[in-house]
Amino acid sequence: MTNSVAPRADVPSKGPGIADRNTPFLRDYWYVAAFSDEITRTPIRRTILGEDILLYRTQDGLPVAMQNRCPHRSFPLHKGFLKGDRIVCNYHGIEFNPDGSCGHVPSLGTAPPAIRLDRYPLEEDGPLTWIWMGDASAPDYSRLVRMEWCTSPQWAFVKGAMYVKANYLGLHENLMDLTHFLFTHGKWNIVKPEHILDRPVLKEQDDMIVQEEVHENAEPPAERMEKLGMTGPFTMFVSQTVKIPGLHQGLTRTTDNSNPPKQDVQHIIHILTPETANTMHYLWAIAYDAVLHDDTFANTMQQVGAAVFEEDKVVLEDIEEVYRRDHRPDFREKIIRTDKGGIQLLRMFSRMAAAEQESALVP
Q1: Is residue 294 within 8 Å of residue 43, measured between CB atoms?
Q2: Are 34 and 53 in contact (CB under 8 A)?
Q3: Both 168 and 230 in a single domain?
Q4: Does any domain span residue 305?
Q5: Helix axes of 168-176 and 340-361: crossing angle, nearest 10 degrees
Q6: Do 127 and 182 have their domain in common?
Q7: Which of 319, 316, 264 is nearest to 287 (CA)?
Q8: pTM for the full model?
């Protein structure tokens, strides 16, 4: 006889109305094309929402984003070279202006207006260069999320980037569920075992998700607390805010037992720029408003951040591999209590995608 446990009927599964790998990309939003210091006078290529994009800077320092495909014979323009502000195709020498128009066709001696490149609106905000992936003639600047840490001298930050072979929605789910910290990031002592039982408060309004939770008797890095003159016990407030599909804003506010209490505030910025349904560009930054000019501390924070987020990358890529191998059409992931924030977020993205697809059908 084989012992078996009947599946519980009261454990729900993912189903309709929850965004997944088959949900169309949300295009009427801003995404981070690159860190600003990545875009130089050397042309580079970046694939965003499945589109092949060329990035470079003009002689005046303005960033340019255009279709990375010569309309003549489809040569990739990032393998060309710059001639002043023009990108020159390295196949037949056709030149294109920063606005996408043709500047010169050597074999014709003219610049036919019909030969042109699609261009993408860009907006720089401190270390970030945002790209509008919707209608290039009507970028919606109200959907651009600006962050004070980008530009204020009262903030310092460390940053990093990695290429992840996984769907971007999985990273959103990962970031909404901090219970994985005890296991995936266990060696860093970010949370205690009792903290995974804390119940976050979830707020949703106007296509925005905010999740908040409080951890008592937290154990932040002792070296940092010592530098700030903070003494335990510590209380840590943690929040996650998502307004647009390409950005996940985290916040930690640690309060100590001093009189009056001291606080340590950090913004943990996760930038998710989908490349394809199964790959993404993951850029991150940690911003802080104390110990601003300590290079040793900054280097330690950067190294720890990179190591922690690399652990997430490994988990997400392992999951993606399982998705690739398992083709059971009836398989549905189960949902437990701690998934609430992630599921609400995926439902929001599903509604946003449906609304965008519907508006595209309206003449």
Answers
A1: no
A2: no
A3: yes
A4: yes
A5: 140
A6: no
A7: 264
A8: 0.93
- Indicate whether 132 and 177 sit together in one domain: no
Distance CA 120, CA 125 (A): 16
Helices and strands of the chain, counted as H and E runs: 5, 17
What's the pLDDT score for residue 1? 42
Evaluate whether residue 219 is within a structural domain.
Answer: yes
Judging by DSSP bridges, how do beta strands 263-276 and 30-35 pair with one another? unpaired
C-alpha–C-alpha distance, residues 287 and 238, integer Å: 15
Please check whether residue 263 is in contact with residue 234, taking contact to mean a CB–CB distance below 8 angstroms: no
pLDDT digits (tens, 9 = 90+) for 266-321: 999 999 999 999 999 999 999 999 888 899 989 999 999 999 999 999 999 999 99
Measuring CA to CA, which residue among 173, 135, 160 is closest to residue 284?
A: 160
Beta carbons within 10 angstroms of residue 231's beta carbon = 13
CA pair distance 344, 328, nearest whole angstrom: 25
Q: Which residue has the tokens 């652990």?
A: 311
Q: What is the pLDDT of residue 2?
A: 46
- CA proximity to 34, closest of 63, 3, 8, 73: 63
Alpha-carbon distance of 292 to 101, in angstroms, equals 45
Q: How far is CA 120 from the centre of its chain?
A: 19
User: Alpha-carbon Rg of the chain, whole angstroms?
Assistant: 23
Cα dihedral 279/147/141/58 (nearest 10): -70
Convert the pLDDT of each residue in 144-197 to its tens digit.
999 988 889 999 999 999 999 999 999 999 999 989 988 988 887 777 788 788
